[in-house]
Specification:
The protein is α/β, with parallel strands linked by helices and about 325 residues long. Helices cover about 40% and strands about 15% of the residues.
Length: about 325
């Protein structure tokens, strides 16, 4: 079994899963780098939400939360959250080996031609360490708060598909042109081009059929949130068919899973973690002893998952990162 790629998510929209200050973010990244993590990732959001409201807002289940400023739990709905792209650029200078990923950029927040130029610049600055994750966008409350139009989901997904074509044209064509339903180009030259050729790896985030077909057609990888090993197995056939329908070898589409990882030797701590993040599906939580966490990770590996993005509760203050670095990563690697 090959060693998996192990990434650390530094910011999700859920309170308790986002590093709020840049000095902390840089310190955690350097610690992760020293322990052998392969990458760090940031979400592309401007607001956080309470754990109780996350699943409803994210569309995993139920209707959008109506908790107001305090959220369903009484905890504050929003805490400080650094802008993804700016923070990643800083991390390019404050780390040396880690790949730098977006999990995921909201397609609606930047024109894809501008994003392609930004990505090329960061790839140059980081000497070829960028992984570009994209999604159609889901956080309607955030769109409304920032005055950004929130089209129907069909249009958001269709625009995402066009964006991948636009960015690839900007990165690979000497005189890029494009005319689609949502975007146009007329000579959007990208100089300097990305260091990685033909372009930085593209990851698509999402669980829907259309989004995953887009990944099969146009991306190097697909990231899903909180899936169990059984869900991975059940979805393999669909993904294989999606790849084959566009003449692609299914083995070339990498599958990444986002999971909460919190090893602990205390049953009391495990219960507290599960209670605090109870609105994340239980399938997405890996907690317990390091050995039990490793056993769960191997279940995913046995189903062909070789790319993990772990989010760690209260990573700045907790011991979870150090336990993972000492007791889990050396075994995986």
């Amino acid at each position: 079994m090959n060693a998996p790629h192990v990434g650390l998510i530094l910011a999700l929209t859920v309170n308790g899963l986002a590093v709020s200050s840049y000095p902390d973010m840089a310190a955690v990244s350097r610690t992760a780098e020293g322990y052998g993590f392969d990458s760090v990732w940031l979400c592309d959001h401007f607001l956080t939400v309470s754990p109780d409201d996350y699943v409803m807002d994210a569309g995993i289940t139920g209707e959008a939360g109506q908790g107001g400023e305090q959220g369903q739990s009484g905890r504050p709905r929003t805490l400080p959250l650094l802008e993804c792209w700016t923070a990643l650029t800083a991390l390019a200078r404050d780390t040396t080996r880690l790949r730098l990923g977006t999990s995921v950029l909201c397609n609606s927040y930047r024109h894809p031609s501008v994003l392609a130029k930004m990505a090329a610049t960061l790839d140059v600055i980081s000497e070829g360490r960028l992984d570009l994750g994209l999604g159609a966008g889901w956080f309607e409350r955030e769109f409304d708060a920032y005055g950004i139009p929130f089209p129907p989901v069909r249009d958001r997904v269709s625009a995402l598909a066009e964006s991948l074509q636009v960015m690839r044209a900007v990165w690979t064509e000497p005189n890029p042109t494009y005319a689609g339903d949502f975007y146009t180009l007329n000579g959007a030259v990208c100089d300097p081009p990305p260091v990685q050729r033909p372009h930085p790896p593209l990851w698509i985030g999402g669980e829907g059929d259309r989004v995953q077909r887009i990944a099969a057609r146009s991306a190097q990888g697909l990231n899903v949130r909180w899936w169990s090993p059984q869900q991975v197995t059940q979805r393999r056939g669909f993904l294989a068919q999606a790849c084959e329908s566009v003449g692609r070898d299914p083995d070339t589409l990498r599958l990444s899973v986002t999971l909460l990882l919190a090893p602990t030797g205390s049953a009391e701590d495990e219960a507290r973690i599960r209670a605090e993040f109870a609105s994340i599906p239980p399938s997405g939580l890996i907690t317990g002893s390091p050995d039990s966490c490793l056993e769960r990770i191997r279940e995913y590996q046995d189903r062909g998952v070789d790319h993990f993005l772990f989010t760690i509760p209260h990573v700045v203050k907790s011991d979870h990162l150090h336990t993972i670095g000492r007791d889990i990563i050396p075994v995986l690697k």
